[in-house]
Specification:
Largest sheet: none
Number of strands: 0
Oligomer: single chain
Strand content: under 5%
Number of domains: 1
Helix content: over 70%
Distance between the termini: 34 Å
Order of helices and strands: HHHHHHH
Radius of gyration: 21 Å
Length: 223
Protein backbone atom coordinates (compact mmCIF):
# COMPACT_ATOMS: atom_id res chain seq x y z
CA UNK A 1 0.00 0.00 0.00
CA UNK A 2 1.43 3.37 -1.01
CA UNK A 3 1.98 5.67 1.93
CA UNK A 4 0.53 9.14 1.62
CA UNK A 5 2.80 12.18 2.11
CA UNK A 6 0.97 13.09 5.32
CA UNK A 7 1.81 9.70 6.79
CA UNK A 8 5.51 9.94 6.06
CA UNK A 9 6.28 13.60 6.67
CA UNK A 10 3.27 15.23 8.26
CA UNK A 11 4.01 14.03 11.78
CA UNK A 12 7.58 15.30 11.61
CA UNK A 13 6.35 18.69 10.43
CA UNK A 14 3.76 18.99 13.19
CA UNK A 15 6.25 17.96 15.89
CA UNK A 16 9.14 20.15 14.88
CA UNK A 17 7.88 23.37 13.38
CA UNK A 18 4.96 24.74 15.34
CA UNK A 19 7.20 27.52 16.63
CA UNK A 20 7.65 29.37 13.32
CA UNK A 21 5.05 31.94 14.40
CA UNK A 22 7.20 34.32 16.49
CA UNK A 23 5.60 35.66 19.65
CA UNK A 24 8.64 37.23 21.28
CA UNK A 25 11.13 39.82 19.99
CA UNK A 26 14.07 38.51 17.98
CA UNK A 27 17.44 39.14 19.53
CA UNK A 28 20.51 38.88 17.34
CA UNK A 29 23.03 40.20 19.85
CA UNK A 30 26.18 38.10 19.63
CA UNK A 31 27.68 36.39 22.64
CA UNK A 32 30.21 38.67 24.31
CA UNK A 33 33.01 36.16 23.94
CA UNK A 34 32.34 35.43 20.28
CA UNK A 35 35.15 36.31 17.91
CA UNK A 36 34.83 39.91 16.69
CA UNK A 37 35.02 38.87 13.04
CA UNK A 38 32.07 36.54 13.50
CA UNK A 39 30.09 39.37 15.08
CA UNK A 40 30.79 41.60 12.11
CA UNK A 41 29.83 38.87 9.66
CA UNK A 42 26.51 37.82 11.22
CA UNK A 43 24.26 39.84 8.90
CA UNK A 44 25.94 38.86 5.59
CA UNK A 45 26.04 35.28 6.89
CA UNK A 46 22.28 35.41 7.32
CA UNK A 47 21.95 36.78 3.77
CA UNK A 48 24.11 33.99 2.36
CA UNK A 49 22.20 31.30 4.26
CA UNK A 50 18.81 32.62 3.15
CA UNK A 51 19.97 32.98 -0.47
CA UNK A 52 20.99 29.30 -0.54
CA UNK A 53 17.62 28.34 0.92
CA UNK A 54 15.81 30.41 -1.72
CA UNK A 55 17.81 28.75 -4.47
CA UNK A 56 16.73 25.37 -3.09
CA UNK A 57 13.13 26.57 -3.35
CA UNK A 58 13.62 27.48 -7.00
CA UNK A 59 15.12 24.09 -7.81
CA UNK A 60 12.42 22.16 -5.99
CA UNK A 61 9.69 23.99 -7.89
CA UNK A 62 11.29 23.45 -11.30
CA UNK A 63 9.58 21.31 -13.98
CA UNK A 64 11.75 18.33 -13.14
CA UNK A 65 9.97 15.72 -15.21
CA UNK A 66 10.58 17.51 -18.48
CA UNK A 67 14.28 16.70 -17.88
CA UNK A 68 16.25 13.51 -18.49
CA UNK A 69 17.22 11.20 -15.65
CA UNK A 70 20.76 12.52 -15.69
CA UNK A 71 19.56 16.13 -15.54
CA UNK A 72 17.22 15.35 -12.65
CA UNK A 73 20.04 13.64 -10.80
CA UNK A 74 22.16 16.78 -11.25
CA UNK A 75 19.34 18.89 -9.77
CA UNK A 76 18.99 16.60 -6.75
CA UNK A 77 22.76 16.62 -6.23
CA UNK A 78 22.87 20.43 -6.42
CA UNK A 79 19.96 20.62 -3.97
CA UNK A 80 21.91 18.46 -1.53
CA UNK A 81 24.96 20.71 -1.83
CA UNK A 82 22.90 23.85 -1.23
CA UNK A 83 21.11 22.37 1.77
CA UNK A 84 24.45 21.50 3.31
CA UNK A 85 25.57 25.09 2.81
CA UNK A 86 22.43 26.17 4.63
CA UNK A 87 23.18 23.72 7.45
CA UNK A 88 26.75 24.98 7.89
CA UNK A 89 25.72 28.64 7.87
CA UNK A 90 22.86 28.03 10.30
CA UNK A 91 25.22 26.29 12.70
CA UNK A 92 27.53 29.33 12.51
CA UNK A 93 24.59 31.68 13.11
CA UNK A 94 23.53 29.65 16.17
CA UNK A 95 27.06 29.89 17.55
CA UNK A 96 26.81 33.70 17.47
CA UNK A 97 23.30 34.29 18.82
CA UNK A 98 22.59 35.09 22.46
CA UNK A 99 18.80 34.91 22.63
CA UNK A 100 17.55 31.45 23.73
CA UNK A 101 14.24 31.99 21.92
CA UNK A 102 15.92 32.89 18.62
CA UNK A 103 18.39 30.04 19.02
CA UNK A 104 15.49 27.64 19.54
CA UNK A 105 13.89 28.74 16.27
CA UNK A 106 17.18 28.52 14.41
CA UNK A 107 17.73 24.98 15.71
CA UNK A 108 14.24 24.07 14.55
CA UNK A 109 15.05 25.49 11.12
CA UNK A 110 18.25 23.44 11.10
CA UNK A 111 16.25 20.27 11.84
CA UNK A 112 13.94 21.11 8.93
CA UNK A 113 16.88 21.58 6.56
CA UNK A 114 18.42 18.28 7.63
CA UNK A 115 15.15 16.49 6.85
CA UNK A 116 15.10 18.12 3.41
CA UNK A 117 18.69 17.04 2.93
CA UNK A 118 17.75 13.43 3.70
CA UNK A 119 14.95 13.61 1.13
CA UNK A 120 17.19 15.10 -1.55
CA UNK A 121 19.84 12.49 -0.79
CA UNK A 122 17.29 9.69 -1.22
CA UNK A 123 16.15 11.12 -4.56
CA UNK A 124 19.67 11.56 -5.90
CA UNK A 125 20.61 8.00 -4.92
CA UNK A 126 17.39 6.61 -6.36
CA UNK A 127 17.87 8.28 -9.74
CA UNK A 128 21.54 7.26 -9.81
CA UNK A 129 20.40 3.66 -9.30
CA UNK A 130 17.75 4.03 -12.00
CA UNK A 131 20.29 5.45 -14.45
CA UNK A 132 22.76 2.67 -13.71
CA UNK A 133 20.09 0.04 -14.18
CA UNK A 134 19.23 1.44 -17.59
CA UNK A 135 22.79 0.78 -18.82
CA UNK A 136 21.78 -2.63 -20.08
CA UNK A 137 24.85 -2.92 -22.27
CA UNK A 138 26.14 -5.89 -24.21
CA UNK A 139 28.99 -6.30 -21.70
CA UNK A 140 26.69 -6.69 -18.69
CA UNK A 141 23.65 -8.18 -20.40
CA UNK A 142 24.19 -11.70 -19.01
CA UNK A 143 23.91 -10.39 -15.46
CA UNK A 144 21.37 -7.64 -15.94
CA UNK A 145 18.13 -7.97 -13.97
CA UNK A 146 16.33 -6.60 -17.05
CA UNK A 147 16.82 -9.08 -19.87
CA UNK A 148 14.62 -7.56 -22.57
CA UNK A 149 12.98 -4.31 -23.64
CA UNK A 150 9.58 -5.19 -22.19
CA UNK A 151 11.09 -5.80 -18.76
CA UNK A 152 12.99 -2.52 -18.96
CA UNK A 153 9.88 -0.60 -20.01
CA UNK A 154 7.90 -2.05 -17.10
CA UNK A 155 10.69 -1.27 -14.63
CA UNK A 156 11.13 2.27 -15.96
CA UNK A 157 7.41 2.99 -15.59
CA UNK A 158 7.39 1.69 -12.00
CA UNK A 159 10.53 3.61 -11.01
CA UNK A 160 9.29 6.84 -12.59
CA UNK A 161 6.08 6.58 -10.58
CA UNK A 162 8.13 6.05 -7.41
CA UNK A 163 10.33 9.06 -8.14
CA UNK A 164 7.29 11.25 -8.80
CA UNK A 165 5.83 10.17 -5.43
CA UNK A 166 9.10 10.98 -3.65
CA UNK A 167 9.35 14.38 -5.34
CA UNK A 168 5.76 15.24 -4.47
CA UNK A 169 6.30 14.21 -0.84
CA UNK A 170 9.40 16.38 -0.57
CA UNK A 171 7.63 19.32 -2.21
CA UNK A 172 4.63 18.97 0.09
CA UNK A 173 6.94 18.89 3.11
CA UNK A 174 8.88 21.89 1.86
CA UNK A 175 5.83 23.99 0.96
CA UNK A 176 4.08 23.28 4.25
CA UNK A 177 7.00 24.60 6.29
CA UNK A 178 8.58 27.13 3.92
CA UNK A 179 5.70 29.58 4.39
CA UNK A 180 6.41 29.66 8.12
CA UNK A 181 10.12 30.07 7.45
CA UNK A 182 9.31 33.07 5.24
CA UNK A 183 7.22 34.67 7.99
CA UNK A 184 10.00 34.10 10.50
CA UNK A 185 12.59 35.60 8.15
CA UNK A 186 10.42 38.67 7.53
CA UNK A 187 9.94 39.08 11.26
CA UNK A 188 13.71 38.90 11.89
CA UNK A 189 14.70 41.29 9.10
CA UNK A 190 12.14 43.85 10.27
CA UNK A 191 13.89 43.89 13.64
CA UNK A 192 17.18 44.99 12.02
CA UNK A 193 18.36 48.57 11.89
CA UNK A 194 18.21 50.30 8.53
CA UNK A 195 21.94 49.85 7.86
CA UNK A 196 21.84 46.19 8.86
CA UNK A 197 18.73 45.59 6.76
CA UNK A 198 20.46 47.11 3.73
CA UNK A 199 23.53 44.99 4.37
CA UNK A 200 21.38 41.87 4.64
CA UNK A 201 19.52 42.66 1.39
CA UNK A 202 22.78 43.31 -0.45
CA UNK A 203 24.28 40.05 0.78
CA UNK A 204 21.15 38.07 -0.08
CA UNK A 205 20.98 39.54 -3.58
CA UNK A 206 24.67 38.93 -4.29
CA UNK A 207 24.68 35.32 -3.12
CA UNK A 208 21.41 34.40 -4.81
CA UNK A 209 22.71 35.66 -8.15
CA UNK A 210 25.98 33.79 -7.61
CA UNK A 211 24.21 30.55 -6.73
CA UNK A 212 21.96 30.80 -9.76
CA UNK A 213 25.03 31.16 -11.92
CA UNK A 214 26.72 28.17 -10.31
CA UNK A 215 23.67 25.97 -10.80
CA UNK A 216 22.99 27.00 -14.39
CA UNK A 217 26.58 26.19 -15.31
CA UNK A 218 25.97 22.59 -14.22
CA UNK A 219 22.30 22.05 -15.04
CA UNK A 220 19.80 22.98 -17.81
CA UNK A 221 19.51 26.69 -18.61
CA UNK A 222 15.74 26.58 -17.98
CA UNK A 223 16.58 26.59 -14.27
Amino acid sequence: MRMQPENTIGRAVRRAFGFFDPKEPADFRPHRRTDHLLKMNLIPLMGRRDAAFDRVAELMRAELFTLSGGERQAIYLETKKLLRRVERDTEKIISILSSPDTERRERGFLDFVKLLDAGADALESFVAFENRLSLNSEETHDFSPLRDDSEYASSEESMTATEITLVNQLRAFFDRVARRVTRYREYVTKSLSRSYAERYASSHRFYLQSLRGETVSQTPSTL
